[in-house]
Each structure stands twice: as C-alpha cells, then as structure tokens.
C-alpha cells in the first residue's frame, strides 16, 4: 500500500474523519467507573471535554507557530482545568528555545504576575521548568511599561531564561480584587524568525488536529487520576506534593493545599486559618469533580487575602456549604448545588508554610 501524504489525507477528508473518530473515543473518559455516576456530573464531564477541545485547538492549531507567537488563554472564565484559580488571569504562549523573543506591555494594577518558560516532556503530567521571572524582581519604566527578553542566552535587564528545549510560556496574573483591578497588557514578538509567514500546511493542520485530541484525552484522564489521589483525604486540606505540582506546571512561588470535598445538603466544611504566614496573597477555592473552578463570575466560590473578613485575632473562618450560613459567616463559599468536587488552597510568596489548612465537617445547625 502506498503511504498517503498529509495533503492526500486533506484532499480525501481522511484527516478529518480520523480526528472525529479519535475524539469520539476520547469521550469514553466520561464513562470511566471512577466518575460520579449521576446525570449532573456526566453532563459536566462532556461539557469539560468541549472546553478542553477548545483549548487544545488553540494551543496546537491557532497559536501553534513559535515564530509568529501570541498569548492565548488555555484556562479562562469558560475553559477551566486542574483547579484553575479564580484569582488568576492565565495566559499561554507557544515558543521554541532556538529563537529569541521580546515580551512587552504595561504593568496594570494586578497584585502580582509571573512568567515561566516550560520544556516539553513525554509525560503529560510533567512540564519542565526552564526559566522564571515575576513582577517582584522586574524593572518597570515610570509609566508602568516594561520589556522582557526571553532567550536561551543571558540578556541585560529583564530576562526570562529559556533552554533550547523550551516550548511554552505560562503567565499568571494574580488579582487581589478581580472586580476592580486591571490586568497587565502583555504582548510578544519573535526577534529572529526564519519563515516569511505563518501559513498553515496540510502537515500543520493534521498535527494540530491530532494534538488537540491528545490534549482532551490526556488532561481528561489526568483529572480523574488526580481526583482519585485527593479522595484519600476528603474534606481535609493537607499540604500537597509540591514537587508533583511543580512538574505539572505549578508556580514555584506557590505552596499548594489540594484536596477533595464532599458534603450533604445539611453539612458544611468549616475551615480555620489561624497560622497565616507572611505572603503576597493566599486563597481557597472550590471546583467541581472535573477540577473546573466553580462559577466565579456570578458567585462567591473563593476567598483570598484581600477579600476575606478577619477575626480580631487575625484568623480567618471560612464556611463551605450549599446554604448561606448567615451574616455571622461572611467568608461563605457557595457549593452551587454540587455535592462533591475538588478544592485548592494556596500561599503565594511565603517562606514558611503550615502543614495544613485546618478543617472539619459539621452540621450547618451546629456551626460554632
């Protein structure tokens, strides 16, 4: 049999048929036995796969040319994954460590932002750190504008290190109060492209289709695997495996407390933070089973250093429940009718960390 080229597979439609068949196969993730067996969570699972497909197509198709790069949002208000932070504005960019890049823009008013370069790996759960810079150690012009050079060789001024194996940039912009602050405007340009344009070839499109389905399949299965880990300490918030979090793309400045919650309608999870370390910020958020942050555009599903109500002794008491516990508990996180899901606490920029975020389950009627 004569091998078909990508051009032949485009002409015949075979490339599209194979994409659709692979996507159908990836949909079986939702029927895995570990997934909560109810229509609500199954439906959310299929919605989750569509969000992953959107993000996958952007990263492997529409923003995939490292010589003509642009920032896109793998996670945003409607595309969510792996306990995305409601206090973050995430951005991603496909790069190639063989090239140099100019990143430029304006500071905005966000509390803090960071940029990290990542190398590729055969393991979907591993992103190799190849460089890092954040707003704490950057120099800004008086008007708030800035420039960063990203390269494998050291540059003067704001320099974001890369390695020849670097393949992406991850940006985290962290809000204190998302409703009032302005994100930093961040742009990027390749300084030494070798191609005259970014026209997509049949090989590019076929590679992008396969990559997008691979993203759906890999992140879907990874989500279930992680939730199985966190189900071992339901309704507790112990310190997570920081090395695993970093390998998966976590920020080196963040200490993670990742877990799983499960509550009945008359129950609540009572979290007490009485040993908060000095830090740039902290937060606690709720997600659904698929590790998608709950609907933060319209409801209070997270609390942080800047939005929390503090007790006279400096501690913070948080109630997680479906029903409003009343005005005595202003740090109420709404489960929005979900009975279970992921949750994540963070301390950002702290030098010491408590071993856990203290929690207990009580009846709403028995709140202290």
Description of the molecule:
The chain is of the alpha+beta class and 368 residues long. It folds into three domains: 1-62 and 200-225; 65-195, Jelly Rolls (Sandwich); 234-366, Jelly Rolls. It has five helices and 17 strands. The strands form four sheets. The protein has a five-stranded mixed beta sheet, with no helix packed on it. Strands 1-7-3-4 form a four-stranded antiparallel beta sheet, with no helix packed on it. Strands 6-5-2-8 form a four-stranded mixed beta sheet, with no helix packed on it. Strand 3 and strand 4 (128-134) form a beta hairpin. Helix 2 runs parallel beside helix 4 and helix 3 (39-62) runs antiparallel to helix 4 (202-230). The chain starts with 5 loop residues before the first helix and ends in a 5-residue tail after the last strand.
